[in-house]
Amino acid sequence: MNDPNPLPPSITGRRRGTIARLPKSTRDQINNLMLDGFPYAKIIETLAATGLQLSEDSLSRWHLGGYQDWLKHQDWLEQMRHRHESFTDFIRENRSSKIHEATLSLLAANILELLNGFNPASLQRQLGENPAIFLRLLNSIARLARLGLQCEVRYEDAIERKAGQDRFQSALRDSGILR
């Protein structure tokens, strides 16, 4: 589930079985019935009421193939929904943030997610195959840190400017020049 891949899971080839040729709405109904744990006999009975005749064998084959593809796609959709919600929550909670700050924060979160699944043996193998990977990773982390510091400096400057403006307006009010 921690796959940082933003692309949907690839499906090898197009399925051609009995269920694969049905309309998407019917396939979704079958997938949801399977997800809810309905036995094949009950799925067959439910769909027979709509005039569709299926066998347990076709449901079994679908369960091993098309249904698994559908589950992977559902997981991917959920990950994308979660990332979208995280992004919108971040923007909502940090109204003073600029889009570049939000982007840097999300990039840092994605790097942390990537490091969470870090496997030293895999990295060592990758470095042996392509040592430039390590340099690109270090360069990316250094660039992220530098940009993060620049954002912090700009944010602190903005706070200082706002405080100076507030002091100036307060002095004007105290002197009676400004109401």
Question: What can you tell me about this protein's structure?
Answer:
It is a single chain. Helices cover 72% and strands 0% of the residues. It has helices at 24-35, 40-48, 56-64, 66-93, 99-116, 120-129, 132-174. The model has no long low-confidence stretch (mean pLDDT 83). The protein folds into 2 domains: 1-93, no CATH class; 96-174. The chain is mainly alpha-helical and 179 residues long.
Per DSSP, what share of the residues sits in E-state strands of 2 or more residues?
A: under 5%
Helix content: over 70%
- Count of β-strands: 0
Distance between the termini: 58 Å
Summarize the helices and strands and which ones pair or pack.
Blueprint: H1 24-35, H2 40-48, H3 56-64, H4 66-93, H5 99-116, H6 120-129, H7 132-174
Helix pairs in contact: 5-7
Offer a concise description of the structure.
The chain is 72% helix and 0% strand.
Q: What keyword list fits this structure?
A:
single chain; 179 residues; mainly alpha; 2 domains; 7 helices; 0% strand
